[in-house]
Amino acid sequence: MSKRENKAAYFQKLTEYLNEYQSIFIVNVDNVSSNQMHQIRVSLRGEAVVLMGKNTMVRRCLKGLIAERPELEKLLNFVRGNIGFVFTNGDLKEIRS
């Protein structure tokens, strides 16, 4: 896959998740090892989806969706540093722990 195709696939996936899931956690992943991330993904399987990505790509995608969904503009302020998204339709307290 080319860079352009990868970016298009990422945009499509992020858009799909934003439309499919009701709740979003933005999590700071500084000092989180790849093994820890794997454990988190496995423990959330079936209940939530973790999506990582470059902040520039995330911002660009969100800005493209703001016309349809103005509430997404609030997320732009939080797209800083080493972050990831956790998308879920489940109980937030349960997912958070």
UniProtKB/TrEMBL annotation:
This is Ribosomal protein P0 (A0) (L10E). GO terms for molecular function: large ribosomal subunit rRNA binding; structural constituent of ribosome. The keyword Ribonucleoprotein applies. The lineage of its organism: Eukaryota, Fungi, Fungi incertae sedis, Mucoromycota, Mucoromycotina. The keyword Iron does not apply. Belongs to the universal ribosomal protein uL10 family. Keywords: Ribonucleoprotein, Ribosomal protein. InterPro entries: Ribosomal_protein_uL10 (IPR050323), Ribosomal_uL10 (IPR001790), Ribosomal_uL10-like_sf (IPR043141). It comes from the Eukaryota. GO terms for cellular component: cytosolic large ribosomal subunit. GO terms for biological process: cytoplasmic translation; ribosomal large subunit assembly. Coiled coil: none annotated.
